[in-house]
């Protein structure tokens, strides 16, 4: 017989739940306070499932959760919460709760299914299922406890219609995790739409998100649906949300508050049921503190925060990641030697998995039909030792260019009685262009080809970066 514990200070709720689950054949015990909870004879009573209200008059539901999991770790716990405390309910899942349910109970069948699922859950099979979903989305979990905890938490969150904020360093796999959230959710048959807020200008980003009417602006030759509209009941992933302009932040806040928006150039209100997953390699709380990001929007996005660990914190996963990358690139017959793997594990990977992927791809390209990659075959981006550790490589490169130009100019001045000033000024302009391009190339190397990150580090716009590289005209 299933033993169910209900902890709720509302006696009507306790009575209702007792009757509901007694009719299903459960043995139900109801307590209405923390005091009654602690009076239970835990040596005599064993519970299969506990339903705990987060807000009790004499204690915090989280403390009861922790106490219960210490006494009976195999007991499944369902947290009951009001909408305003959903974030706390998510914190409860980090402490061992299996699931949560919002009060008041709108759909009793959903509640019954949640309890049935907890009782029938096979942890080994469930973990295998979760890891298979992760693999299908391109996310390699590996052996790291940090990643295992993250993916299990992400799976639980995926079942809920709450906004999710993913934080992590550049190249750590934020978009891949967002795809896992989509695949693991009930929305997996709906569209998944991703957009990088930092790669698109403000005016274009508004049109991309909300759509526009024909004639709304120059070049708007036909009606276009925005991503909120296209996503429908699916998932909309906003990468680098910290780069969204203040005006876009205001519009996003309105959508999150009302689920309503208008196309550019239209007065017709449309509704969206898309789930929003946002990501940032910048700590949004710090951005709020610096007045770079709206606090009210941050709280709307930050219902659930998932932090992806950097690769340097999960080096035990590098062998599995390398195997995955090798097979993904169609080189399943090539292996990395133990010494090669050890070399990769000794590196700190500032560019995370994206950098590892680049290193593996470059190594395979230059492998010369080898079947085994050795440590000598691997060249790391930042493995070069610079003469002065206090000076960045890009500054040293620039100093070398300037020094060479200065020596040549001094030599010309000493050899000649006259100099052509106009020629020197023209040469200075050419030198400026060369130095600018050199700094951009160094920044791109340092950010492993991420142009948005390179532009941010150089404190220039993407348009300026492309201009320096002679890729497009500056306007």
Automatic annotation (TrEMBL):
Keyword tags: ATP-binding, Nucleotide-binding, Phosphoprotein, Transcription, Transcription regulation
Residues bearing PTM 4-aspartylphosphate: 53
PROSITE patterns registered for this protein in UniProt: RESPONSE_REGULATORY, SIGMA54_INTERACT_1, SIGMA54_INTERACT_3, SIGMA54_INTERACT_4
Listed InterPro entries: AAA+_ATPase, AAA_lid_NorR, CheY-like_superfamily, HTH_Fis, P-loop_NTPase, Sig_transdc_resp-reg_receiver, Sigma_54_int, Sigma_54_int_dom_ATP-bd_1
Residue ranges of every copy of the Response regulatory domain listed in the record: 3-118
GO biological process: phosphorelay signal transduction system; regulation of DNA-templated transcription
Protein name: Sigma-54 dependent transcriptional regulator
Domain Sigma-54 factor interaction: 140-365
Top-level lineage group: Bacteria
Nucleotide-binding found in the keyword field: yes
GO MF terms held by the record: ATP binding; sequence-specific DNA binding
């Amino acid at each position: 017989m299933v033993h169910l514990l209900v902890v709720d200070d509302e006696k009507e709720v306790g009575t209702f739940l007792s009757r509901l689950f007694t009719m299903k054949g459960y043995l139900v015990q109801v307590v209405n306070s923390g005091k009654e909870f602690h009076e239970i004879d835990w040596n005599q009573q064993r519970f299969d499932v506990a339903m705990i209200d987060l807000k009790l008059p004499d204690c915090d539901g989280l403390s009861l959760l922790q106490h219960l999991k210490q006494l009976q770790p195999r007991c499944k716990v369902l947290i009951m919460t009001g909408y305003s405390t959903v974030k706390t309910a998510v914190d409860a899942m980090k402490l061992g709760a299996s699931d949560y349910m919002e009060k008041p109970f709108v759909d009793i069948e959903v509640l019954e299914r949640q309890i049935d699922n907890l009782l029938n859950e096979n942890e080994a099979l469930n973990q295998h299922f979760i890891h298979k979903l992760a693999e299908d989305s391109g996310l390699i979990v590996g052996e790291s406890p940090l990643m295992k905890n993250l993916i299990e938490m992400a799976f639980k969150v995926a079942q809920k219609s709450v906004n999710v904020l993913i934080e992590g360093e550049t190249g750590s796999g934020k978009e891949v995790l967002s795809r896992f959230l989509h695949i693991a959710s009930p929305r997996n048959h709906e569209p998944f739409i991703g957009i990088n807020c930092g790669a698109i200008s403000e005016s274009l980003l508004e049109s991309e998100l909300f759509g526009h009417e024909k004639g709304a602006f120059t070049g708007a030759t036909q009606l276009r649906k925005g991503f909120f509209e296209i996503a429908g009941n699916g998932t909309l992933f906003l990468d680098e949300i910290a780069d969204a302009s203040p005006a876009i932040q205001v519009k996003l806040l309105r959508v999150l508050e009302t689920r309503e928006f208008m196309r550019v150039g239209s007065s017709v209100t449309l509704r969206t049921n898309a789930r929003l997953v946002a990501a940032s390699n910048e700590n949004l709380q710090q951005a709020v503190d610096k007045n770079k990001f709206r606090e009210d929007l941050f709280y709307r996005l930050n219902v659930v925060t998932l932090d992806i660990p950097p690769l340097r914190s999960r080096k035990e996963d590098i062998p599995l990641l390398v195997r995955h990358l090798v097979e993904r690139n169609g080189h399943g017959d090539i292996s990395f030697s133990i010494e090669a793997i050890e070399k990769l594990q000794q590196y700190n990977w500032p560019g995370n998995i994206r950098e590892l992927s680049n290193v593996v791809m470059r190594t395979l390209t230059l492998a010369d039909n080898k079947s085994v990659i050795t440590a000598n075959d691997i060249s790391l981006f930042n493995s070069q030792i610079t003469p002065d550790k206090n000076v960045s490589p890009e500054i040293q490169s620039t100093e070398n260019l300037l020094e060479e130009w200065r020596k040549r100019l001094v030599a010309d001045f000493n050899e000649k009685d006259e100099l052509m000033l106009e020629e020197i000024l023209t040469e200075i302009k050419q030198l400026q262009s060369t130095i600018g391009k050199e700094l951009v190339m160094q920044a791109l190397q340092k950010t492993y080809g991420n142009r948005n990150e390179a532009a941010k580090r150089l404190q220039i716009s993407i348009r300026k970066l492309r201009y320096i590289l002679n890729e497009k005209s500056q306007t």
